[in-house]
Amino acid sequence: MNVALITPYFPDERTLDSGIANHYQLLAQNLAAAGHHIVVVHVRPSYEHEQDTFSKHSPASQITVLTFKVRVPAIINRLFKNQWAIVDMVLKLRCMLVTAGAIRGIIKEYHIQIIETSSYFSLCYFLSHKKIRIPLVVRVSTTFSQMLTGHYPFKSRGMDLIAAMEIAFIKKSRQLITHAKSHAIELEKLYGLDARSFRIIAHGISIPTLKTRSGSDVTRVKVLYVGRLEYRKGTDVLLSAIPLVLQQCPHVFFELIGNDPGNQNQREFEQKNETDILARVSFRGRIDLTSLTNAYQSCDIFVAPSRYESFGLIFIEAMSFAKPAIGCAVGGVPDIIIDHYNGLFARPGDAQNLADMVIRLAKNESLRKVMGSNARKTVEERFSGKKLAADSIHYYQTLLVNT
Predict the structure, then answer these.
(1) Which residues pair with 339 in a beta bridge?
(2) No. of H helices and E strands in the chain?
């Protein structure tokens, strides 16, 4: 099968930590490993100092990456020099137009039979109006509209337009994928979509090789948090729970990894707590992938008390290292954590209950090992890159039979 994956993000020298980029790299690698020919169409803004507008390379056998580097016309930059939101909107629209202009030639040259794309930034918005005569599969994760609501401290009509175009693109798409039934239901509530129109294909990850913990590590219990330090992620609940845990468990240490704008959460935590508490809590900020891997490997318990997660990839990442996970039964998290099997649920927003769950695992090494083993098994069976590719191939073949 010849498959085109059209994406606004794909790993390169500038894109090192993107969920969309990592998803399409993993999907491409595992589809190719299954014997399929993959063309990644990466349409992105041109980076500073880049002179060319197109490049092509093959990172692995049976994978070709076509990168389209899109620029805003100079006159737009001059006219709207101090209005970055307008420039950004024009750039995103041009990315859509470049995609529409290139795809017919790509289909013909590479004999493409099926296309999958992300709804994010709607690269195939104009393509959906054309009769390309092959299935166009649209994967919907967190929408740009949801990102604007939860993560952007500013608004603009340009951003609102791009967000509205994504929802319109999703509504007129015939083949839809999302990662969890709960997210399909959420999209139905937000935008009037039919949750039943989505094929559920979970995200996957590369399964890491487990390493034996060194003897120096077993004398203390490390609790790890990974994610942005913000209200939606339940950071305030975690920071309130930490002293409650440390008062009862002097052998426990906390490590928090993720962006904390202005170190605000860290400063507030340091102002509220005594030295003996602060000595057992480490705020590491954003770190590189190697350091993150080491953090997962060396922790004993993973915790992320999010108030909402459309999926919860961080839980899968932690569980792949055979770590029990503590989260809340919100969004897509119950599709990953099975309470009392591979982790524990804490009540959303309840610091004392969260502390109780951490204490329970911190004081019971055998329970941690059993749940950790079950966590690894869950990921191997349901969330591997191989499973992602197999589920995708099955769906693609169904569409081709019915085309």
Answers:
(1) 343
(2) 14, 14
